[in-house]
Design a protein that fits this description.
This protein is mainly alpha-helical and 380 residues long. It is built from 15 helices and four strands. Strands 1-2 form a two-stranded antiparallel ribbon. Strands 3-4 form a two-stranded antiparallel sheet. The protein has a domain of 261 residues. The N and C termini lie far apart (70 Å).
Length: 380
């Protein structure tokens, strides 16, 4: 008889995620006191939905929880492989420290948009320096004889630009969506869970390849941090994650996605397999479709009015749901539903029958649409 097949380290990943969640929950209470004493407080503004001052700096507690989860993972015999053959987790931690520092300064002193952008580019550049970048990419067009699609081998400059652009886009998308209590943390949790689920599938399909360990661990860490922060942040919020937390979530999701798919030689796979290997990118794109769309519309709206694309207003998607007549919590839960349908639908397409998935997601989207417009229909 041959050796028994290795078991996926699901319990280890869940233990790490739970550890990050518990530590984040405990540390966030301390950070709340620190933020109040340091004056890192959000005063009610015209575009805000809260009416009382709320402390910020929640990203500090989240980063502390992530550090605790990493320390535990390093002591576990199986998950230690995430550190032995790759610098990906270290890269995300280092870049995360930079972006949390920049975000914390903004939470306290409100930095200008160019300074924040410089910090985001610097953090993304750290990922590149550690080798977390896209080197090769598959596209479904320009196939040769007998080939479906083609493979783009990126030059160094192209790889750097693509990696930095992805990281900066996700950091800003998460920052833009952080407008209702619990919204950014919930979307981050959904994105991390979907990315982690597919990374586990990749780990299984690759025969426990060491390259699949880091992205799964990164997803577990950020998912745990979001879960631990939610009890403090769900409506009514007692603390905001601020830019320090929102940008940290975006950065880590970009790191997990790039770590999973950025260095795979797609020339070894068929078109369907190559598309499946890009699923971590599709998952993040799907789960962040709502905030990314909101980001693009906000930039167009502000620049067409002659304002800075980073200028704040009260026309985001979550504000519009409130205007329709949804309560604060219902608006947040509806956006959770949209994000979960898109994210887990993208994962399911690579695992289950396409026909079943399309029908399931279609029914879910119909329910989400009806749920979103119910208050307006009642008003008529």
């Amino acid at each position: 008889m041959g050796p028994a097949p290795a078991i996926l380290p699901l319990r280890e990943y869940l233990l790490v995620a739970l550890t990050a969640a518990v530590l984040t929950f405990l540390l966030t209470g301390l950070v709340r006191v620190l933020a109040m004493r340091a004056g890192a407080v959000t005063m009610p503004r015209e575009r805000d939905v809260h009416l009382t001052p709320i402390p910020r700096l929640g990203g500090l507690g989240m980063y502390g929880g992530i550090l605790g989860g990493v320390l535990l993972a390093h002591q576990l015999p199986v998950l230690r492989r995430s550190f032995e053959f790759s610098w990906d987790v270290v890269a995300v931690l280092t870049a995360g420290a930079i972006i949390v520092a920049v975000g914390a300064l903004d939470d306290r002193f409100e930095l200008d948009s160019l300074t924040k952008l410089a910090g985001q580019v610097t953090a993304a550049g750290v990922l590149v320096l550690f080798g977390v970048q896209w080197f090769i990419f598959w596209v479904p067009w320009n196939g040769g004889a007998g080939l479906q699609g083609s493979v783009l081998v990126l030059g160094q400059d192209q790889a750097v630009l693509l990696t930095v652009a992805l990281a900066v886009a996700l950091m800003n998308a998460m920052n833009f969506v952080d407008g209702l209590d619990g919204l950014a943390a919930g979307i981050g949790l959904i994105a991390a869970a979907a990315t982690g689920a597919f990374a586990l599938h990749l780990l299984d399909e690759s025969g426990r390849s060491v390259s699949a360990y880091p992205p799964t661990l990164i997803a577990a860490l950020v998912g745990g941090a979001c879960l631990g922060f939610l009890p403090h942040n769900f409506q009514p919020a007692r603390i905001f994650m601020g830019d320090s937390g929102a940008m940290l979530i975006g950065l880590m999701l970009a790191g997990a996605t790039t770590s999973a798919s950025g260095r795979i030689d797609f020339r070894q796979y068929s078109a369907s397999d190559a598309l499946a290997l890009l699923s971590p990118l599709l998952v993040v794109a799907a789960v962040l479709f709502v905030p990314l769309l909101d980001l693009v519309l906000a930039v167009v709206r502000r620049t067409s009015a002659g304002r800075s694309p980073f200028a704040a207003d009260k026309r985001h998607l979550h504000h519009r749901l409130l205007e329709i007549g949804h309560s604060h919590r219902r608006a947040v839960l509806l956006i959770y539903l949209w994000a979960a349908l898109l994210a887990f639908g993208a994962v399911a397409l690579t695992v289950f029958d396409v026909f079943v998935v399309v029908w399931g997601v279609g029914v879910g989207l119909l329910v989400a649409v009806l749920g979103s417009v119910v208050p307006r229909l009642r008003a008529r």
